Amino acid sequence: MLKRLLPDPFILLLLSVVLGASLFPAQGRGLAVAGTVSNSAIFLLFFLHGLRLAHGAVLEGVRHWRLQLAILLCTFGIVPLLGLSASIAWPGLLSPALWVGIFFLCVLPSTVQASIASSSVAGGNVAASIIGSATSNLIAVILTPLLFSALAHFGGVAMGLGGVAKIASLLLAPFALGQIAQRWLGAWALRHKAWLGRLDKLTIMLTLYVAFSAAANDGIWGQLRARDMAALVAFVLLLLAAALASCWLLGRSLGFSRQDRITLLFSGAHKSLATGAPMARILFPGATAGLIIVPLMLYHQLQLIVSAWLAVRLAPANPSAHDQSEKDPRHA
Questions:
Q1: CB neighbour list of residue 69: distance below 8 Å, 6 or more residues apart
Q2: Predicted confidence (pLDDT) per residue in 91-118, tens digit
Q3: Could you tell me if 145 and 164 are in contact, meaning their C-beta atoms sit under 8 angstroms apart?
Q4: pTM to 2 decimal places
């Protein structure tokens, strides 16, 4: 139990990067070079995402289309509405910059590894989790900036659609190229899956260093008081609880099996740091991106802790009774 409450090792590594960027931020020409390297790494990251996602994975989702639609409804509908409603009900709870971070967090896609792992431990529909997370991240390349713009507008924050073009050039284009190249490089990507996973994490670290370097140069820590952090932690925990409860109740109201409700619970409520950090780096100015990523980092850590506890509580008493008929579409 204590181990599950400790911070995820990767989160500790990211916090070290944030600390390093705050104490030793890149400046001037160095920051510009780091930004160019970060953008190149993001381009490569989404090319590899396209390379690794098998064409048959999305098609396999047709068998569970009601569940897949429910996951998308939770991810891009219910959770954003929870964030917007809270900002209207308690506008003074957080600073405007932190509310922008909450809006951004709410429109992000589901996680991949965390939602699949939680669903597997809890006895959920693992194949549907894989498809749901893949579909969610694919759609988010276009839908996230559009939803964020709408959410920010209703929340009283001015935000243009200029980020959509940046998203298309740095995320959608390389993803499409990766899908095309899969015919020739797909087997290579599968063989080097572990190495490519480390590259994902390296890109997130580089993205955070650039974002928090610019934020430190702009005095981010002078803008974020202890009271603000306490309120943010409490609100993010409340948001996570509301998202999980909404997903579970939706699955029950739709008459889903227990396995499918478990998949909806995790895939619908989780939010992806791996997708969110690069997107924030593209959508927002460097000094703003650092502050906006803070709610996402908190949510990411809390969802790991809470999901680990829930997965164990929901796990079937007889693991052998778990449905073994699902096919893993990652190798389709």
A1: none
A2: 999 988 899 999 999 999 998 778 888 8
A3: yes
A4: 0.80
